[in-house]
Design goal:
mainly alpha; Arc Repressor Mutant, subunit A; 29 helices; 0% strand
């Protein structure tokens, strides 16, 4: 559409300048987070050309006093200012330059409000991202977003309706209220189905559902949703959904005990986080890397990372909350409980905030364990009462399971220790504690079963690669490098006799990407051609 508009003669541009700017608006919106960086830069350049044509038309109209329309010119200048600010907002947002983005946020507040709903979305989006991403307090936006939803619903602007529902989903995640998230996601998906929205627009809502299902310990259902997110994001080259999808998939695989699959998902997420150049993604991914290290027992690597982390108390960076929590996890793994308590109390004002109950709940769960293990049972019980009040009504399970044995021991202690009436501590939900301990027992039984099954089970990981090893096959040599998830998919299609073009079509990737994967497969398998690669893949039980 933008290319068609660029072909219009100058006289038509002058007469329909609003159409030109609206084209630039939708061009920027469609590419703001939805495409690869190279495509986004191209979209910015195209939008810049459209804006310059309007600026030329405005200068010409300004020189001709008789033909100038002051109201029209004022509106066009206002929208040009909106687009200019909008186009330069992404860089400080992704780099974590909160000070610069705060200035942009203030600029947006000072601009006049446009009458058209589509143009109101720019300042609303800046406001949302400032509070949700920069300040990490998205829960505070829900009342404003609900009011906005009523307004855009009446206007029946599909673009605005989709955006506001997406913001409501993300903001509801910050509340930590799983039932609310579930409700928002289903409502948003119903809206998309009603207006026949593109599949990629459902990404945030599916990831919200996956988060809920994960916390309810419905791992298979969460995995199925995440695989759909990854498939759609791959097709649309939406690297943010891809990074988030693989990051969440890593958690699911880790919970299932499939450490190799978790590692592969983590590697994909790390690669994509590097592409986005987003400090937010990189900080979040680091927290998940620590989870994987601890699951593998790689304390040395975790300690090495922890030794080089620098966090300033005078200037708090909200997106680094996950790094603080990761440091606490390391302290718990080392049984340095007093150190964990000291660290949590030092950062408590930043981790325990009403605008992000998701972080607050994570903080309280670790704080409860650290206090109990450090012998501060009265404080631990008080913390547990507050934590249970937030998590029991919502049905949280994995929040507790993911902390592992220290959490199980803490829950057992809370169950067996009689309440000291002199401290007037609140009673704890015995029913909830028993439910959590039962979930621990079920998970341990399941993992014992997986450890005893035949080595061909998908959850058994026998380093070095491969997984799926059986007694009748060869063991991969020590130099063997694990295959990525995508390389495994390409390998299976090769085994089915698919051509490069057929693989590209089925996996929804470019032909050159398929060739790269095939080259990597040959290298990793030490093969000179496809036939030899398939023979070795069967020897190592990769198929």
């Amino acid at each position: 559409m933008s290319r068609w508009v660029m072909e219009l003669p100058h006289a038509v541009i002058c007469e329909h300048a609003q159409l030109v700017l609206t084209s630039a608006l939708y061009l920027l919106n469609a590419n703001y987070f939805f495409n690869a960086i190279t495509q986004r830069v191209g979209a910015y350049k195209e939008a810049e050309k459209l804006m310059k044509r309007v600026e030329i038309a405005l200068r010409q109209q300004g020189e001709d006093a008789q033909s100038s329309n002051s109201t029209e010119i004022r509106l066009l200048k206002q929208r040009l200012r909106l687009l200019r600010v909008w186009s330069r907002a992404l860089e400080p947002l992704m780099s974590g330059d909160n000070e610069e983005f705060h200035l942009i946020y203030q600029q947006m507040q000072n601009l006049e409000r446009d009458d058209e709903v589509a143009w109101q979305m720019i300042p609303l989006y800046i406001t949302f991202m400032f509070h949700y991403l920069c300040q990490q307090e998205g829960a505070l936006l829900i009342p404003q977003l609900q009011d906005t939803w009523q307004r855009v619903s009446q206007a029946e602007d599909h673009f605005a309706m989709i955006e506001v529902r997406r913001w409501l989903t993300l903001a509801s995640l910050c509340t930590g209220r799983l039932h609310l998230v579930h409700q928002e996601c289903l409502a948003s998906l119903a809206l998309l189905e009603q207006i026949e929205g593109y599949a990629i627009l459902a990404g945030d809502h599916y990831m919200g559902l996956a988060h809920v299902l994960y916390q309810w310990n419905q791992l298979e259902e969460a995995r199925n949703i995440l695989q759909r997110v990854i498939h759609d994001a791959t097709y649309w080259e939406h690297i943010y959904h891809l990074a988030w999808g693989y990051r969440s998939l890593m958690q699911v695989e880790l919970a299932e005990g499939d450490l190799l699959a978790a590692q592969q998902a983590l590697q994909e997420a790390e690669r994509l986080a590097q592409q986005t150049k987003s400090v937010f993604h990189q900080s979040w991914i680091m927290g998940f890397r620590v989870q994987w290290w601890l699951a593998m027992g790689y304390l040395a690597e975790a300690n090495e990372w922890a030794a080089h982390v620098t966090l300033r108390q005078d200037i708090w960076e909200p997106h680094r909350a996950n790094e603080v929590l990761a440091l606490v996890h390391i302290s718990l793994a080392q049984q340095h409980y007093s150190q964990a308590v000291e660290m949590l109390e030092r950062w408590q004002t930043h981790l325990d905030r009403p605008g992000n109950n998701l972080i607050t709940i994570s903080f309280l769960s670790l704080y409860m364990v650290a206090l109990q293990q450090a012998g501060k049972r009265g404080q631990a019980r008080a913390t547990a009462a507050r934590l249970f009040a937030l998590t029991e009504p919502e049905g949280y399970l994995r929040l507790y399971l993911d902390i592992g044995q220290p959490m199980k021991q803490t829950l057992q202690s809370l169950l067996t220790t009689s309440q000291d009436n002199t401290e007037r501590l609140p009673a704890l939900s015995r029913t909830y504690i028993l439910r959590l301990l039962s979930a621990f027992e079920q998970e341990e039984q399941l993992r014992r079963v997986r450890a005893d099954v035949a080595p061909g089970d998908k959850h058994v990981v026998s380093p070095p690669f491969p997984q799926h090893c059986s007694g009748s096959t060869s063991v991969a040599p020590a130099w063997f490098k694990p295959l990525t998830l995508q390389e495994q998919r390409v390998l299976r299609l090769l085994a089915e006799g698919a051509s490069n073009q057929q693989i590209a079509t089925q996996l929804v990737i470019q032909l050159v990407t398929v060739k790269k994967h095939v080259t990597n497969l040959l290298s990793k398998l030490g093969a000179v051609n496809r036939t030899q690669a398939l023979v070795r893949a069967r020897e190592y039980d990769l198929l």
